Amino acid sequence: MEMTILLSFFFLYSYIESTHTYAKLFLTREKTYPYALRPHVFFDQKVEVDYRTNIINNAYIPEDPRYPALWARAWINGHPLSMKKYTKAQAMKKYTKAQASGIVSGVSRHSKYVWLSEGFTGGGELHKQAEFVVLPAEGTQKIDEYICVLNWGEPIEEVTFTMDLGAITMAIPGIGRQNNPYYVQWLYGTFFRLDPPGYQKIGSTVNWRWTHIPSIDQKICVQWYAWYR
User: How many domains in the chain?
Assistant: First the structure.
C-alpha cells in the first residue's frame, strides 16, 4: 500500500496550473523511555487550481497506516480550512451524499484514512501541510522508506516534488569521516536509494519535475539506512 498524494476532489472542467510538493525527512526523539529516535516527514504542498465557482471542493490528504499523520491543515488563498480525519468507510459515505448534491469527489484506494477540510468554492492557491511518522519497514532490519504517489487525472502544466534529506543527513553520526561505520555506504552513494530515475540532486535536496502532462500517477520512493534503530 502506498501513500497517495491527491490535492483535492476535482470535478469536470477543473484545471491545475501547477503543483509543488516539498517533503522534509528528519529525526525526532520520543518523549518516553527508551527515548528512541524516530523518522518523521514534514509535508508541504501548494497547488494553483482553476475551479468553477459554483462547485464545493475540499482539501484532501490521504493517510497510509505506515505513515500516520500527527496533524494536518490547509488554506485556500490564505484562508484557513479546518480539517478532520475520517476512516475510508466514513469518507465514502460522506462523499456519496456529496455526489448526490452535485459535488464530485473520490477516495484514494491507497489510503485507509482521509484528512478532509471543510468545503470551499472558487480557485486560487490551495496550500496543505502535514507531519507524518515513518514506521519501521516490515521484513527489513535496517532499511526504512517513505513512499508518495503523485496522482492527478487532469491536465497539469507543471508538477514538482522535492525531497529534503539535509536534516537526516546531518544527524548521521560522524558523517563523512573514514572511521564512521557508515563511511563505505556514504562513499559509494548507497546510504539513500531513490526512485524513479530522472531526478536532479542539488546539495541535500532531490528534485523531480514533469511538465505539460495530461495526467500523472507516479510513485516516488526514498529508502535509507536506519542506523538509529
Answer: 1
